[in-house]
Amino acid sequence: MNARKAIDGKALIYMIGLCAIWGMQQTAVKLAAPAMPEILQVALRSGVALVVIAGIAAVRRETGWFFKGTWKAGLVIGLLFGLEYFLVTQGLRFTTASHISIFLYTSPIFAALGLHMRLPEERLDAAQWVGIAVAFLGIVFAFAGRAGGVRIDTGLIGDALGIAAGAAWGLTTIALRLSALSNAPTTITVSYQLAGAFFLLTILSFVLGQVSLTATPILIASMAFQIIMVGLLSFLLWFSLLRRYLASQLGVLSFMTPIFGITFGALILNDPLDGGFIAGAVLVLTGIFLVGGRDLFRKTSAATP
């Protein structure tokens, strides 16, 4: 395989499109919630995407990885991924899509802290510790940002669920890095994640009684977007980019996603935004960039004469 290259203009355009798609997903789910519970939407989306991604793995002859002792790690990351989206879908029932978009992307903070304790090569440097402090200060500001139209008591519950979802995502990253799946093709790890989300969320949707369905134009449009754009197109484009470009630089660019999430939530759902939340969101994004951008900064300085 050819060496992966640094980000260029073409990759940047693709990443902006990807972040826009990912940023829209919370808004799309909440928009269609009156017609289908959030948890059932994500379960259905995950099931369809699983069939396609597993099919791609079969075409590429990568399915042998399922039998290389990866099933235990796959079970763990699948359950964690399912837990993440369970927390996201329940959080959306209490707070705005904009808030969930920010709190979900605290995941790199939790991943960095966990890997710092487990792997010597992942020790945090001074800039990253500053980033963690800034991000958590931002969480405090964002938590306090409670504009009109959102009840304080239920809104705080939703925000807490959003942060818990970010922690679950961070744990998924740690489990993946420390397992036999760390060297597996992306199609295999994503297949495990989608399978975990599909089965766990489907079961929980019936247990919680969140299985109502009313066919409406909004629901049809939302599910089409989630299945085609989020579940299929975005994954395929992401796989393609990972095969050509440096993953660390792509990961830094993915931090644009919460910006799109806030924007779509405000424009489409009329999510209320106040100064405290905006200030907190800026601090969170700054902190995440400081934590996740270390590899990018190192590569940039190394390439500078």
UniProtKB/TrEMBL annotation:
<feature type="transmembrane region" description="Helical">
    <location>
        <begin position="71"/>
        <end position="88"/>
    </location>
</feature>
<keyword id="KW-1133">Transmembrane helix</keyword>
<feature type="transmembrane region" description="Helical">
    <location>
        <begin position="218"/>
        <end position="238"/>
    </location>
</feature>
<feature type="transmembrane region" description="Helical">
    <location>
        <begin position="94"/>
        <end position="114"/>
    </location>
</feature>
<feature type="transmembrane region" description="Helical">
    <location>
        <begin position="250"/>
        <end position="269"/>
    </location>
</feature>
<dbReference type="InterPro" id="IPR037185">
    <property type="entry name" value="EmrE-like"/>
</dbReference>
<feature type="domain" description="EamA">
    <location>
        <begin position="157"/>
        <end position="291"/>
    </location>
</feature>
<feature type="transmembrane region" description="Helical">
    <location>
        <begin position="126"/>
        <end position="144"/>
    </location>
</feature>
<dbReference type="InterPro" id="IPR000620">
    <property type="entry name" value="EamA_dom"/>
</dbReference>
<dbReference type="GO" id="GO:0016020">
    <property type="term" value="C:membrane"/>
</dbReference>
<dbReference type="Pfam" id="PF00892">
    <property type="entry name" value="EamA"/>
</dbReference>
<feature type="transmembrane region" description="Helical">
    <location>
        <begin position="190"/>
        <end position="212"/>
    </location>
</feature>
<feature type="transmembrane region" description="Helical">
    <location>
        <begin position="12"/>
        <end position="33"/>
    </location>
</feature>
<feature type="transmembrane region" description="Helical">
    <location>
        <begin position="275"/>
        <end position="292"/>
    </location>
</feature>
<dbReference type="InterPro" id="IPR050638">
    <property type="entry name" value="AA-Vitamin_Transporters"/>
</dbReference>
<feature type="transmembrane region" description="Helical">
    <location>
        <begin position="156"/>
        <end position="178"/>
    </location>
</feature>
<keyword id="KW-0812">Transmembrane</keyword>
<keyword id="KW-0472">Membrane</keyword>
<feature type="transmembrane region" description="Helical">
    <location>
        <begin position="39"/>
        <end position="59"/>
    </location>
</feature>
<comment type="similarity">
    <text>Belongs to the EamA transporter family.</text>
</comment>
<feature type="domain" description="EamA">
    <location>
        <begin position="10"/>
        <end position="142"/>
    </location>
</feature>
<protein>
    <recommendedName>
        <fullName>EamA domain-containing protein</fullName>
    </recommendedName>
</protein>
